[in-house]
Amino acid sequence: MTEDVPVVLFVDDEKHVVESLRDALRRMPFLILTATSGDGALKILQATKVDVVVSDERMPIMSGTELLAKVRELYPDSVRIVLTGHATLEAAVRAINEGEVYRFLAKPCRAMDLAQTIQEGLRLKRLARGSRALLQRTLSREGQAGDSTATSVEPTEVDSRQDDSIFIEETNESVSELIQEIEEYLRR
Q1: In sequence order, what E strands does the chain have?
Q2: How far is the CA of 23 from the CAs of 9, 10, 80, 106, in angstroms?
Q3: What is the pLDDT of residues 55-73, one digit of tens each?
Q4: Closest CA to 101 of 127, 130, 129, 124
Q5: For the whole model, what pTM was predicted?
Q6: Helix, coil or strand: residue 152
Q7: In the prediction, which pLDDT does 152 show?
Q8: Beta carbons of 48 and 8 less than 8 angstroms apart
Q9: Could you tell me the domains of the chain?
Q10: Neighbours of 73 (CB within 10 A)
Q11: Which tops the pLDDT comparison, 130 or 56?
């Protein structure tokens, strides 16, 4: 397994569901792992860097929302998606508030729709990583200049083009204000 291949973990207490998802998406450009419980998923996450976690909501012992909240806490860079056959407004609100999920999808979900959602989540993750790298370069340059009040740029819009480019508009804000703005953006 290479570092360039994204890893997707499917979690559902029904073994045939995770096997079906794995089979339906086997030709996609990512490595697919499966777990049939929240505890099983957490063990996989401890051993393997996972980019996307797709979890069922209704599972015994640990719900998908509880799992994704733990995943958010332990692995905040992961993209979290709920895929459930029991979509309720309450479940969606809990998943968003507690697990900060990227998407909440209802079963049945077409394999290509799920694959597209995973690809979009991976793209968002790459954008966030690029934003952090930009922030680090900016901080490094400021540190070399020795001036913490130097003006910089504030990202006011992230353009979601195919090339994952980031549009940055210039302002007269300090680097500390830039950091705050990027951190707020990444938390969205």
Answers
A1: 7-11, 31-35, 52-55, 79-84, 103-106, 151-154, 169-174
A2: 13, 12, 21, 19
A3: 988 888 998 889 998 999 9
A4: 124
A5: 0.67
A6: strand
A7: 45
A8: no
A9: 7-109 (3.40.50.2300), 126-187 (no CATH)
A10: 11
A11: 56
